[in-house]
């Protein structure tokens, strides 16, 4: 009896020790560690809203978001270009006004440092991929879309994937894709011309963002995967649905769903992921069969991924990936990032040009001067030297990216202790930058910061503003978008062809309502009136 009681007491003691151990660990992770990080930042003069136990500043964030007065449809359409900005993450902007360009805040146990100070942004751009990476809590929920691709990878894994993929988007490779870009754009323009012939009064209302997504998906499919949009249509449409299902702002708070059972949205995400992977895997298997019979004439991104994945298993990085999953993750990411962002930039650019028709005329005059007639135009757009002479078009694209960069936020996690100027940033801090306010800061861009003035870029980004490092439509530092060259060449070719043949005005049915769903999207579409240029 006594022995049994003694055993029971030992068991209960072990259970108690285990429970206390878990409680202490949770207390350390949820309070002591965050408190230490806040203390380090506070001692360096970095203020911020006081956090609450366990939830941090999430309650205040949600309250500010819910009480923000959102105005999307003012009476004068020329005034609506920028007043949507306060509706997207209004707490970031309100705290910046209260605490300055550098402040701290918390979401649960996660500690964030907001940075919009140009001097610190310059320092951030100098950090390497081993010190700054993608926040794990942000990228983990996006696994169904981006997997363990280059978008999510950190450290040596990121370096390996960048070394593998980035060369495929170097300018010398992009030159070989220009024919495809032009052919895809011409096909779209012909459909518009046929629809215009049947339209009343030679005017057609087009939802340009929808049409340009189709075009961009066709280009990325053909250039990177050797398939046409007819083959990639299912993949692209399902990825769009997957993006919609994953566009939950709560992810930015770092909140985890602790439910024991998956939600309906969870099941939808898993189903879409399986369907996308099945379609991509068929694309991969078809290509492998082609390769075996010697049917590949030209190497594209898919072929390069296949060859790399089949390379010697002694490569220590390649061992971290299953061959198929490595290929599928990167295919999914490139379909999403490569087509969506460029299509959005082209769409927002046409919306701004519809508001400012004189710039449409300037671009047409430049195209005529540089390229000549229609026949010469098609040859001109396959020549990078001629494309580089389209200065007015380049300025318009840069100004459009200033106002409507597809990426709204740049988020980094300090993977190691980081030195930024005079500041020591502890390991684990998440560094945030809100692009729309940076791109509209009068101190940097001047008193006309809210005006559409492409001429500010006449001498390049370095002369367009006081602090060029605060212009970051493609991100910054070692994680600068690898598809920047591909995107800019595609934008110039597509917009040159479109503007040489069509003029644009805002449709009376257009509702200006930019929303954040992983990227800056037009909630109601971009509806423009299209006419044939005489």
TrEMBL record:
Heme binds at residue 481. Pfam families: p450. It is found in: Membrane. The keyword 4Fe-4S does not apply. Keywords: Heme, Iron, Membrane, Metal-binding, Monooxygenase, Oxidoreductase, Transmembrane, Transmembrane helix. It comes from the Eukaryota. SUPFAM superfamilies: Cytochrome P450. Its main location: membrane. InterPro entries: Cyt_P450 (IPR001128), Cyt_P450_CS (IPR017972), Cyt_P450_E_grp-I (IPR002401), Cyt_P450_sf (IPR036396), Cytochrome_P450_Monooxygen (IPR050665). One of its GO terms (molecular function) is monooxygenase activity. GO terms for cellular component: membrane. PROSITE patterns: CYTOCHROME_P450. Its cofactor is heme. It is a single-pass membrane protein. The chain crosses the membrane at residues 6-27. Belongs to the cytochrome P450 family. This is Cytochrome P450 714A1-like. The lineage of its organism: Eukaryota, Viridiplantae, Streptophyta, Embryophyta, Tracheophyta.
């Amino acid at each position: 009896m006594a022995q049994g009681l003694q055993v029971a007491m030992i068991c209960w003691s072990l259970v108690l020790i285990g429970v206390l151990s878990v409680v202490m660990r949770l207390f350390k992770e949820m309070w002591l560690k965050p408190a230490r990080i806040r203390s380090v930042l506070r001692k360096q003069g970095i203020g911020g809203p006081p956090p609450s136990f366990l939830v941090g500043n999430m309650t205040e964030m949600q309250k500010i978001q819910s009480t923000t007065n959102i105005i999307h449809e003012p009476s004068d359409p020329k005034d609506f270009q920028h007043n949507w900005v306060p509706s997207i993450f209004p707490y970031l902007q309100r705290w910046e006004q209260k605490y300055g360009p550098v402040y701290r805040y918390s979401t649960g146990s996660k500690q964030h440092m907001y940075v919009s100070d140009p001097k610190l942004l310059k320092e951030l751009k100098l950090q390497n991929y081993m010190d700054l990476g993608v926040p794990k809590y942000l990228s983990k929920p996006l696994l169904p879309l981006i997997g363990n691709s280059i978008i999510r990878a950190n450290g040596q894994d990121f370096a390996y994937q960048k070394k593998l993929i980035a060369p495929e988007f170097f300018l010398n490779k992009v030159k070989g894709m220009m024919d495809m870009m032009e052919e895809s754009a011409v096909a779209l323009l012909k459909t518009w011309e046929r629809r215009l012939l049947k339209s009343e009064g030679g005017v057609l209302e087009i939802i340009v963002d929808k049409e340009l997504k189709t075009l961009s998906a066709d280009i990325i499919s053909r250039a990177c995967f050797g398939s046409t949009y007819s083959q990639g249509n299912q993949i692209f449409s399902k990825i769009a649905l997957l993006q919609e299902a994953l566009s939950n702002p709560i992810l930015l708070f770092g909140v985890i769903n602790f439910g024991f059972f998956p939600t309906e949205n969870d099941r939808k995400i898993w189903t879409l992921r399986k369907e996308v992977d099945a379609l991509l895997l068929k694309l991969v298997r078809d290509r492998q069969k082609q390769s075996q019979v010697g049917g590949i004439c030209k190497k594209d991104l898919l072929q390069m991924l296949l060859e790399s994945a089949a390379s010697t298993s002694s490569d220590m990085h390649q061992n971290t990936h299953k061959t198929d999953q490595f290929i599928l993750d990167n295919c999914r990411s490139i379909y999403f990032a490569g087509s969506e962002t460029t299509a959005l930039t082209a769409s927002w650019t046409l919306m701004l040009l519809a508001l400012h028709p004189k710039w449409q005329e300037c671009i047409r005059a430049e195209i005529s001067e540089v390229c000549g007639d229609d026949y010469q135009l098609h040859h001109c757009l396959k020549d990078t030297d001629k494309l580089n002479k389209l200065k007015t078009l380049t300025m318009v694209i840069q100004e459009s990216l200033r106002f409507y960069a597809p990426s709204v936020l740049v988020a980094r996690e300090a993977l190691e202790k980081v030195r930024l100027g005079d500041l020591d940033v502890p390991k684990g801090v998440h560094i945030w930058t809100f692009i729309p306010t940076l791109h509209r800061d009068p101190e940097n861009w001047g008193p006309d910061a809210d005006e559409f003035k492409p001429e500010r870029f006449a001498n390049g980004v370095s002369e367009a503003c006081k602090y060029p490092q605060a212009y970051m439509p493609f991100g910054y530092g070692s994680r600068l978008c690898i598809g920047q060259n591909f995107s800019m060449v595609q934008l110039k070719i597509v917009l040159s062809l479109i503007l040489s043949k069509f003029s644009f005005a805002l449709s009376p049915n257009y509702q200006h309502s930019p929303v954040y769903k992983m990227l800056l999207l037009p909630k109601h579409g971009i509806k423009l009136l299209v006419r044939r240029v005489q």
